[in-house]
Structure formats: structure tokens, C-alpha cells
Amino acid sequence: MYLKRLEVRGFKSFASATRFDLEPGVTAIVGPNGSGKSNVVDALTWVMGEQGARALRGGKMEDVIFAGTSSRPALGRAQVSLTIDNSDEVLPIEYTEVTISRTLFRSGASEYAINGTACRLLDIQELLSDTGMGRQMHVIVGQGQLDRILQATPEDRRSFIEEAAGVLKFRRRKEKTERK
Ligand code: ATP
Ligand code: MG
């Protein structure tokens, strides 16, 4: 399983439909300051179901919709689609390619789809659960965080890795039980 394609339209600085074809392995996005690199990561987080505007570096969810520039009017909707290669059948669905989509209208209405069929956010969350993706599963190391990790004490660094590996919640549970 790997992320195969990300398509954004009307999302943050991406007014026109923009498509990123990804290969297995490491992908690097380079570009000048303010060119939209972090917005690509925001689009990924968003399509996987992020509900917090702050996690998307905005004040309210509507801020993900293209707000317009001096030469281009604002748009009425943001849309992001993520295509996942599922030829190894990690996702519990009988398609070798799975596209999840999310659309937000200025009215506040939201739409979600799996392979073009409308669904609930819950369906996307369930599809992604047990894959290492989706809510609370993947780890995104934000800008500036890298310095913090490099300069952290060994204990803090360990707890960050534990968080990423998903064992921190078990440690917390263990400590809570031991205190009783
Ligand atoms: P840096 O190298 O400084 O981290 P970056 O490439 O990560 O830059 P982003 O933070 O992804 O840049 O993009 C910032 C740009 O996106 C800003 O110019 C901002 O105005 C624009 N932007 C963010 N939200 C919207 C929106 N809703 N509508 C239009 N433009 C937006
Ligand atoms: Mg950035």
C-alpha cells in the first residue's frame, strides 16, 4: 500500500485542479517559501478526515477553501482526493486502487466519497483504521518540530518515538494501573 496520487482543487493556495503523482518510497516537495509545500501536507491530513482547523493551520474549517488573490476570485468549495495503491490488499476493500475524497462548501456542507460513491466520514475512518493511516495513526512532523526533536533530551525523544509507534497510550495505561 502506498499513496499514489493526490488531487487538490480549490484547497488553500491550489485554486486550479492540481495533481501530484507519487511513487513508492520517499517523496520530497521543494519550493520557495510560501509556495504551498505545507498546504500539500495539509491536504493529505484533511482528506484523511482531520476535523480540527488548528491542525490545518487555520482559524476555522472554511479557511481551507481558496480565499482568492488580487487576480483571482475566491472559490466556493475545496476538494481533495487521495488515491491509495491497494494491490497488496491492505485496505479491506476489493479494489486495487482506492480513492478517498472530501469536499467542503462555503455553506459548511461536507461530502465524502470512496471510489466516487458518497459515504460518511466514519466509513473513511474505518477503511483506514488498522493501516497506520487516518485519525491519530500516521505521524506528521510539522515545520519547526524537527529542531525540537533533535534538541530534545533522550527521555523526550523516546516519548516522541513511542507516540509515533503507538505504544505511548499503552505505557500511559500501564502507569495508571500501577498507581492504583
Ligand atoms: P514555507 O517554506 O515558508 O514553509 P510553504 O511552501 O510551506 O512555505 P505554505 O504554508 O504551504 O507554504 O503556503 C502558504 C501560502 O498559502 C500563503 O501564501 C497563503 O496565503 C496561501 N494560502 C493559505 N490558505 C489559503 C487560502 N484559503 N486561499 C488562498 N491562499 C491560501
Ligand atoms: Mg511550510
TrEMBL record:
Signal peptide: none annotated. ATP binds at residues 32-39. It is found in: Cytoplasm. Contains large globular domains required for ATP hydrolysis at each terminus and a third globular domain forming a flexible hinge near the middle of the molecule. These domains are separated by coiled-coil structures. Homodimer. Required for chromosome condensation and partitioning. Belongs to the SMC family. This is Chromosome partition protein Smc. It comes from Micrococcoides hystricis. The chain holds residues 1 to 180 of 1192 of the full protein.
